[in-house]
Amino acid sequence: MTILNGSVWPFEEGRIDAEMLVRHIPEVRKPVYYVCGPPEMVAAMQKLLSGLGVNEDNIRSEEFGGY
Question: How far apart are CA 46 and CA 53, in angstroms?
């Protein structure tokens, strides 16, 4: 549980995994997903989404790294 500005943060925390997605997205294969971040994170999310049966055409991604 996280306290933010004196209030309890009411939202889920932690690494995004298959269980989290299925818990929050009723039809996990239908949305278009936008993934942006470091190359390792983007690759991991693409693998996770593909493993859930999300069509490759429904995954948009962009990688960025250190400068």
Answer: 11
